[in-house]
What we know:
Layout: E1 8-17, E2 21-28, E3 40-43, E4 47-56, E5 59-67, H1 68-73, E6 84-88, E7 108-118, E8 121-127, E9 141-144, E10 147-155, E11 158-163, H2 165-170, E12 181-186, H3 188-201
Antiparallel strand pairs: 1-2, 1-6, 2-5, 3-4, 3-6, 4-5, 7-8, 7-12, 8-11, 9-10, 9-12, 10-11
Amino acid sequence: xxxxxxxxxxxxxxxxxxxxxxxxxxxxxxxxxxxxxxxxxxxxxxxxxxxxxxxxxxxxxxxxxxxxxxxxxxxxxxxxxxxxxxxxxxxxxxxxxxxxxxxxxxxxxxxxxxxxxxxxxxxxxxxxxxxxxxxxxxxxxxxxxxxxxxxxxxxxxxxxxxxxxxxxxxxxxxxxxxxxxxxxxxxxxxxxxxxxxxxxxx
Length: 202
């Protein structure tokens, strides 16, 4: 379980592509002693399992396998050497819940429709994939590329979020452009509420 509070920005430095699996090496600033095979790390949204780790020069690295389902449902299919990824370590019991509960199970890739910069901030308008808009509510939470964000407005399949200067500085959001695909995980509570409402109406 995660919170959507990014703790590092990693960089893909190696990609080994198979027919149904991709093996990635991601450079990061995490201390190597905190890494181990089997550890989970949210990488740009999807929760991936560390299979190897080490250090090269002044940076640590870890390796993950990205399976066919993740490649089909997320932006991981577009990752290449040089791609920057928002990283987050799993929540520990007793940690501060600074964002919202995030599972690392991405629902689908959404698309950035428009970007407007003002006063050092950035307003991003996003097109929600079909079937997911009903889970997105004004003032509710979403995880976009692994970042916990508050929904500012909703209209049909479009919604917007506002990124403050700090978020733009410590995440990959300063590099995003209109037309980019981004990983979307809807709020866990919204999903359960919709499921409950559906079962009661039936």
